[in-house]
Amino acid sequence: MNASIIDPLQGDFPEVIEEYLEHGVMKCIAFNRRGTLLAAGCSDGSCVIWDFETRGIVKELRDRDCVASLTSVCWSRCGRRILVSSADKSLILWDVMSGEKITRIVLAQTCLLARLYPGSSAPSTCLACLLSSAPVIVDFNTGTTTVLPVTIPDMENGLAPPLRNKSSDGSPPLTPTAACFNKRGDLVYVGNSKGEILVIDHKSSQIHGMVTVPGGAVIKNIVFSRNGQYLLTNSNDRTLRIYENLLPLKDGHTALEDMSRTIDEVDAVEKIKTVGSKCLSLFREFQDTITKMHWKAPCFSGDGEWVIGGCASKGEHKIYIWDRAGYLVKILEGPKEAVIDLAWHPVHPIVVSVSLTGLVYIWAKDYTENWSAFAPDFKELEENEEYVEREDEFDLVPETEKVKESGVNEDDEVDIVTVDKDAFSDSDMSQEELCFLPAIPCPDVPEQQDKCVGSSSKLIDSNHSVSPLSEGAGQNGIAINHASSPLEGNINYHF
């Protein structure tokens, strides 16, 4: 049966590689809140910001004390700050407009993922997920860290959860623990190695609720949808799961405390499980029943209607797209390069993926020209046909049959200054939100132009499975347009 008849929204997702971005070796990406800017963390410790409309680099943030590869990039709600985590155990908070470093904090462990507190336009705290330790809340003002619990402590003996890298009985180190803020940032959701989702008040480090994932598999990723209504988890059992958030979006912490007081349970652990069942409800499960593949960097679309997950195989660049009802609607296949990060545009049906070679691919919808959409009586011809003109075809139309004038007052002033809030944007939009950055042109250097010409010739002769890394892309970056692979595109320089 025709899928477009079953699902009227079929087609609101990307289909082909529109172009790709090249600047060094990029490792991680993140859109700002409105999708006008794209930040990418590189292997040399720098963070480049692309203007997503023009596909040109408008800012490069570089700290000489940080030369290790970046592991994550995060925008603040207003878009004026960027937090990056590095493999050298450091967190760096940047001022985007000035390009100056606000602060740099070195942690005890390598940070795999760092997220700024979403409840403030100028956050001073962040959530950091460490390599072999429990997640921590980092205060940039004081430089202190607060360790969050990753398991329910033994209430009877009063024992706290193990916080060291290695337990006292010689068991292996803790596996990386996934964690994320909710929409308002008043709660932290932690997914541990026991297959449990813990709902934690990060200010008091108290566990209020717990939800057990079916099968008890290790939770590798956990992320909220943009509107805060759904939670997506990625487990070691090769399954993606969507949980519906049953708490109110506003004052969720207060509702959670009221719920805890109203539940009468003798056993404290059972009480936490009861509260957890009223916080999250399993909604859908996604998996490839044939190949049983692991998933990489899953996330929601901007409106929360679609779910994407990258194939974790090293030699495949495949992106699976499901609708929220659980149906697989599209498999995007790129070059023979592994997917290491994914991001869906907050507003448009565009997916951006990072390959193992450091290229950023932009997946967009394959639009086809349909002239009948503008003129319903228009007929497209496959070949020339003889046409006999009617005698009155070009006669003047009588006055009585003219189209009635519209009731719009042409003297009214048109507001071209106010920016309309898009349908998928977060609420409480600040007037100080940074949406665009001025581009600073770089002078032409003859030596670099010669290198670019040489690298472009290499594109033609190179193997189809290997993506090019242009030598002359260091300063301004390169965006290659309309290419299903890097070999089929043309190089355009944006200044």
Structure description:
The protein has helices spanning 3-6, 252-262, 268-277, 446-461, and strands at 16-22, 26-31, 37-42, 47-51, 56-61, 70-75, 81-86, 90-95, 101-106, 111-116, 125-130, 136-139, 145-147, 178-181, 188-191, 196-201, 206-212, 219-224, 230-235, 240-245, 280-286, 295-300, 306-311, 318-323, 328-333, 339-344, 351-355, 360-364, 478-481, 490-493. By secondary structure, it is mainly beta.
Q: Unreliable runs, pLDDT <50, ≥5 residues?
A: 1-10, 154-172, 448-475, 487-495
Neighbour order of strands in the largest sheet? 26-27-28-1-29-30
Apparent shape = globular
The main pleated sheet reads as: 6 strands, antiparallel
Helix content: under 10%
**What is the mean pLDDT?**
81
Enumerate how many helices there are, as a single number. 4
Strand proportion, as a percent range, falls in 25-35%
Search tags:
495 residues, mainly beta, 4-stranded antiparallel sheet, 4 helices, 34% strand, disordered C terminus
What does the secondary structure layout of this molecule look like, with pairings?
Elements: H1 3-6, E1 16-22, E2 26-31, E3 37-42, E4 47-51, E5 56-61, E6 70-75, E7 81-86, E8 90-95, E9 101-106, E10 111-116, E11 125-130, E12 136-139, E13 145-147, E14 178-181, E15 188-191, E16 196-201, E17 206-212, E18 219-224, E19 230-235, E20 240-245, H2 252-262, H3 268-277, E21 280-286, E22 295-300, E23 306-311, E24 318-323, E25 328-333, E26 339-344, E27 351-355, E28 360-364, H4 446-461, E29 478-481, E30 490-493
Antiparallel strand pairs: 1-28, 1-29, 2-3, 3-4, 4-5, 6-7, 7-8, 8-9, 10-11, 11-12, 12-13, 14-15, 15-16, 16-17, 18-19, 19-20, 20-21, 22-23, 23-24, 24-25, 26-27, 27-28, 29-30
